[in-house]
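Give me structure tokens for this 327-residue protein.
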Amino acid sequence: MKNLTAIFGMTALAAVSLISVSASAQTYPDRTITMVVPFSAGGPTDTVARLVAESMSKDLGQQIVVENVGGAGGSLGAGRVAQADPDGYTVLLHHIGMATSATLYRKLAYDTLNAFEYVGLVTDVPMTIVARKDFEPKDLKGLIDYVKANKDTVTVANAGIGAASHLCGMMFMSAIETPLVTVPYKGTGPAMTDLLGGQVDIMCDQTTNTTKQILGGTIKAYAVTSAARLPVLPDVPTAVEGGLADFQVGIWHGVYAPKGTPAEATERLSKALQVALKDPNVVARFAELGTVPSAESEATPAALKAKLESEIARWKPVIESAGQYAD
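Here you go.
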């Protein structure tokens, strides 16, 4: 009799546990989610994150709060998420730096490929090659000729090692086979401020940060790095049109969660991301910034994982050839 009672008790306990797990899965999320952006507020990646977070919040029924944790080319923020509780309430929105940091930083506090669960791709933002508005060259060919002739005095701004502007600038110098004087800043904002003020000459940065300035005539645009001209910047030629063969650079963004986050949570986040990327407001705002949301087939864990793996392989030889490391 005692044995039967024990068995019934254990069965009841197991049933309660299953009900509890099921209820937990069905009620996720039941509180605020933090989305870590590993760069400063007001920058291009922050802009993308806030647009997506606002729309995802509506679908999830819970607010997503964006927290900026900048430093070390995005690796500080990524490291923080890697160490966070894997409960679905802390996520990371990072750009291409997630892939390049695997080579740029020879001693990372986390394993890039294995420290995270994958949610999905968000967008692939084109870059622009821009300069202070009174810079002498009239077009991209003229720019290339000019910087080659004045390589010791031309200054290239970037938002710090590992930032999108640093990566694009590094690829530009590699493409023209000319090292230039680089000026790193602590964020995109200060770099753009000095470009606007004429303290630095050129910069290669995301359309999400440069489109407004280009349209306003406060900086000079030489090229976009997309395969075709952008509807929002129809008068700006592609880098290929300007003479840089095969020069296409996109700064893709993805959403991650700490390793061990329940599949139910990552799947729910992925669904919310897919809904957000179809939101008319997000689509319209992305268009104004010179980019488009990722397709539903790309806003998935599998697509993001495949993208990260391929981009690590793509950038590794570029960084090693340049010999520029962050540690």
